[in-house]
Design goal:
15 helices
């Protein structure tokens, strides 16, 4: 800023801040409402008096949730598929994007168009299910990971990032006798930490929130994921539950609706804990990987 120039907000800055504040409120209010319901008593929830603050605070819902074996089984399954799926899919994305970032790669444009075509036109469900069944991928997490092994959007972002790496570094490495794999492993990857973390988080969020794939291709109750468990819990809470009276007697002033809210809160805690540590890479990773088309 030049000396003597007043530090004032422009009209555009004010509009941007107002829009961001409104967006934050829109995102936070539903979460605070669910949290308040999970801590509120049965009467307050039933009468619709719960807003963003809990009424008649009780913790019986969380005691009930953490004692459910089905919850922890689905939680374990979701953590497993998220951890393995993120590593495998991120590695596949990097290994696909790096060769496609080379302008002189033969058939490069055709391969990119194939990825874009597959991104836009999703295969029909019935042929996909028959193919999964033929190869024995039903009721396996391997099938869920292979379904979206390389997401076109993520691959294009990483490819664009690799294209922006300095050519002088690559040429110097080749002059020193380094091959493509060594350049990729020792030069390209260390320079691409921001975009790797960003895309890795996108993939992790995708697997953590995955519902359609597991619901279609997972039939075994022991393999159900957290999202399947939450859906079943919501559907069951809409019906008259014979265990409602039992819950009240054992855990106090609770009901299925508060238990559902508590389960949702517990299931998102890992993502909430991880996100702040990765957030600093997000803006840098996306902007560096989206300058070129």
């Amino acid at each position: 800023m030049k000396p003597g120039k007043p530090n004032v907000f422009s009209f555009f800055d004010v509009v941007v801040y107002v829009v961001l504040i409104i967006a934050c409120v829109i995102c936070l209010v539903p979460m605070l409402h669910v949290l308040a319901k999970s801590l509120s008593g049965e009467g307050a929830v039933t009468s619709g008096r719960v807003g963003i603050w809990p009424i008649d605070i009780q913790t019986g819902t969380y005691k009930y949730v953490i004692q459910q074996r089905v919850f922890w089984n689905s939680f374990k399954n979701t953590v497993l598929i998220t951890f393995v799926g993120t590593i495998v899919c991120l590695a596949a994305t990097l290994l696909t994007a790096y060769p496609l970032s080379h302008v002189h790669l033969r058939g490069r444009k055709v391969l990119i168009m194939v990825f874009i075509f597959g991104w836009i036109f999703v295969p029909p469900l019935v042929p996909m299910y028959l193919a999964m069944k033929t190869y024995g991928l039903i009721n396996t997490y391997t099938g869920l990971i292979l379904l979206d092994l390389v997401i076109a959007y993520n691959m294009l972002v990483v490819k664009t990032f690799f294209e922006q790496l300095p050519d002088s570094i690559m040429e110097a490495a080749k002059v020193d006798g380094a091959g493509e794999f060594r350049i990729f492993w020792q030069i390209a990857l260390p320079l691409s930490v921001p975009v790797m973390v960003t895309i890795g988080m996108f993939i992790a969020f995708y697997f953590w929130n995955m519902y359609a794939g597991p619901r279609i291709y997972i039939n075994s109750p022991s393999l159900q994921t957290m999202q399947m468990y939450l859906n079943d819990l919501i559907m069951n809470s809409m019906q008259e539950s014979p265990v409602k009276g039992e819950l009240v007697n054992i855990y106090g002033n609770v009901m299925p609706d508060t238990i559902r809210s508590a389960t949702v809160i517990v299931s998102i805690v890992p993502i909430i804990c991880v996100y702040p540590f990765m957030q600093k890479y997000f803006v840098k990773g996306i902007t560096l990987g989206s300058v070129k088309g």
